[in-house]
Amino acid sequence: MKIGLFTEFSYPGKSQQQTYAEVLEQIALADELGYDFFSTTESYGEDQFSCSPFPLGLYVAAAQRAKRIRFLTGIVSAPAHHPAILASEIAAADLLTEGRIMLGIGRGHPWVLNRLGLNPGESTARFEESLRMLVEIFKSDYIESLEGQFWQIRDFKLSPPVTQRPHPPNLHCGSDDAGERDIRWSDRAWIGPAGVSWHSFRTGAGAHRNLPQEYFSP
Question: How many domains does the chain have?
């Protein structure tokens, strides 16, 4: 069993500068105390819920002091990112943290997608396409052309390459209505969403546990 810490990165009554400093202190302490991983969310736009638009950047900074603990994005909103850009950022962060990135990825909160002008109704299709492209980028030496409904990639070679092979662990986050298709391209792990009922958590975990071998990326 692996034990980690998670923060929503909320900051009531504090400045964002103070919050970032405290979270970096928390990560360093978690490393000293022997926790296995630290996780925070990705969110865009100012509110009291979170001020964490770039968790990978936070982890690169934290890795300068915390030398052992692993870093989990909890979660990256796949529909908001071009897969080639996201793969490049993951690979760079994996290099700078010496292979300690774990990619928690999902469809994203509807209010975040609305802020970015993305249709939440397309989130499942965008999520599926993003993960397919990410896996293809990580396993390929070179992509001449990769066409999708939402994104296209041409003449692309990932640089820097990922430190972990074949790629950093990717964990799906979703609730019971996510469906099998959301889970198909993730590794053998699932992140239960915060703030849902026990029934929703149990249903989502059960759906993931019962999927056949071929639903997971190699």
Answer: 1
- pTM for the full predicted model: 0.83
Distance CA 196, CA 124 (A): 19
Residue 142 to residues 137, 138, 150, 155, 167, Cα–Cα distance (Å): 8, 10, 20, 7, 15
Report the relative pairing of strands 143-147 and 152-156 from DSSP bridges: antiparallel
Q: Phi and psi for 114 in degrees, rounded to 5?
A: -60, -40
173 within 8 A of 74, measured Cβ to Cβ: yes
Report the CATH number at residue 75.
3.20.20.30
Query: Distances from the Cα of 86 to the Cαs of 15, 78, 81, 100, 137, in angstroms?
Result: 28, 9, 6, 16, 10
The answer to whether 81 touches 44, Cβ cutoff 8 Å, is no
Which residue has 């360093």 as its token pair?
Answer: 28
Its domain, for residue 65, covers 4-215
CA distance 102 to 167: 9
Q: How many CB atoms lie within 10 A of CB 167?
A: 24
The DSSP code sequence of 8-77 is ----TTS-HHHHHHHHHHHHHHHHHHT-SEEEE----SS-SS---S-HHHHHHHHTTT--S-EEEEEEEE
Residues of the chain with pLDDT under 70: 48, 172-218
Q: Which 8-state DSSP code applies to residue 193?
A: P
